[in-house]
Amino acid sequence: MKEVFITRSAKFLPNSPISNDEMEEYLGMIDGVPSKGKGLTLRNNGIKTRYYSIDKKGNSTHSNAQMTALAIEKLIDSDFTKNDIELLACGTTSPDNLLPSHAVMVHGELNCSPIELVSPSGACCASMQALKYGYNSILAGSSNNAICTGSEKLSSLMQAEHYEKETERLAELDKHPIISFEKDFLRWMLSDGAGALLLESKPRQTPSLKIEWLEIKSYANQFETCMYAGSDKNSDGTTKGWKEFTSEEWLDKSIFAFKQDVKLLGKEIVPTGTKYLKEIIDKKGFDVSTIDYFLPHLSSEFFRGKIAEEILKYNIHIPQEKWFTNLTSTGNIGSGSIFIMIEELMNSGKLKKGQKILLMVPESARFTYAYSLLTVC
Question: What b-and-e string marks burial along 153-192, b requiring 16 or more CB atoms within 10 Å of the CB?
Answer without folding.
Answer: bbbbbbbbebbeebebeeeebeeebbbbbbbbbbbbbbbb
